[in-house]
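Minutes, structural biology subgroup

Action item carried over from last meeting: produce the structure token record for ATP-grasp domain-containing protein (Candidatus Reconcilbacillus cellulovorans). EB confirmed the sequence was re-checked against the source entry. Recorded below for completeness.
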Amino acid sequence: MKTPVVGIIGAANERHCLYVAAEIERNGARPLILDNSPDLPFPLTMAGEGIFYYKEENLNAVGAFYLRALFLPVPAFPTGPIERQLFEEGYRAYARERERYAVWLSWMREEASAGKPFVNAPDAGLWHFVKPYQLNVLRRAGLPVPATLVTGSSEALSEFRRKYRRVVYKPVAGGAHCRLLTEADLAPERLERLSAAPVLFQEYVPGADLRVFVLDGRVIAAFRVEGENGVDYRTGRPNVEPYVADGPIADIAVRACRTLGLVFAGVDLKLAPDGRIALLECNPSPMFEGFDRAAPVTVCSQLAAYLIEKARSGAARASAGGTGR
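Output recorded by EB:
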């Protein structure tokens, strides 16, 4: 029987890619990290219908894929003394990354449409990027999302703050910590910046932070996290403890993933002192290495086992002609 091969889409030096790869290898399968970092020679070749190569390796042998990260094309401006040079080189860098991203996304869609299992699907990563849409989809599904405002208007923010005494804010597309809105944030010079780029504001929900990991429709791990500031547990050194997520908490987490079509996700919730549960967001490519240090059964081991199982079934379908190639 052939050794199952699991493709890991991300970066060869990213710690979660390495962590999952090591666990896959430890369980007798072969990991293949497909590095889509922007500073490397482009490694992917699409040579026709169903003929795909990563460097020199034919990807038909890969039975399943774990989509850890697909780097979005963002403007990159190298340091330089001349403004025109900054603009021109920055645009070229952006154009190059746009082309690379287009090929990676096209290839993943081809693989997925041919029946190769993905965790998660190629488009699922966009749920983190289009967070306002994610929250509205979850809210329409009847899930308990806190009141949310996305705006570049200081007037709209003032009205929202009058309605909700305590408010937190964070970037729309991620990339920075969540913070409590203070009087200093409402100074005129700060509010002027708001008109240039919108911000996501939410009603602050006090209470315990919960991170629930869902895989294939069931909760595989959950943790209670106590941060230093009570707003974003990623700041400082949080205390992480295993948590038994059952009843309504498990139901909300699983329903949220099902609503968004996520096979694997880290679901962030708040458990208020009065028992209220608030669903903050679903992360389609969650970090879990730190949580695993406190886990009775690691997230990584369960994810790797699932990927290996899918790789075996994916390879079997491919050899039987089930992918249409």
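Discussion: The chain has three domains: 5-122+304-319, 148-203, 208-284.
Next step: EB to file the record with the rest of the batch.
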